Amino acid sequence: MSKGGWSCPKYIDNRCTILKKECDPGDKGCVLYGKALFSNEESPSNEAFEKRMERKMREMLRDKNAK
Ligand code: SF4
């Protein structure tokens, strides 16, 4: 994946060197999995991203209440 200002270091010749298949940003195993929301609602990254954000929010609230 090489669009905008970011180029994935695992992207070579339209293939992912981690997943050993065509680059599919947000797929399980991708460096972006759970770290970004994708406009494609079917992206497995989206659910993982939302769970990650919920977990971070709980941690922030717990830390804030502990002070
Ligand atoms: S699938 Fe993800 S990790 Fe693999 S090349 Fe594409 S953007 Fe990079």
Order of helices and strands: EEEEEH
Poorly predicted runs of 5 or more residues: none
How many structural domains are formed by the residues? 1
- Overall 3D shape: elongated
Ligand names: iron/sulfur cluster
Percentage of helical residues? 25-40%
Individual helix count: 1
Terminus-to-terminus distance: 43 Å
Topology:
Layout: E1 2-3, E2 6-7, E3 11-12, E4 15-16, E5 21-22, H1 44-66
Antiparallel strand pairs: 1-2, 3-4, 4-5
The structure holds iron/sulfur cluster.
Short description:
The chain is built from 1 helix and 5 strands, in the order E-E-E-E-E-H. Strand 4 and strand 5 form a beta hairpin. With 67 residues, the protein is α+β, with helices and mostly antiparallel strands.
Question: What descriptive keywords fit this protein?
Answer:
binds iron/sulfur cluster; single chain; three-stranded antiparallel sheet; alpha+beta; 67 residues; 5 strands; two-stranded antiparallel sheet
Structure notes:
The structure is a single chain. This protein is of the alpha+beta class and 67 residues long. The chain has one domain (2-66). It has one helix spanning 44-66; strands at 2-3, 6-7, 11-12, 15-16, 21-22. A 3-stranded antiparallel β-sheet has the order 3-4-5, with no helix packed on it. Strands 1-2 form a two-stranded antiparallel ribbon. The longest helix has 23 residues, at 44-66.
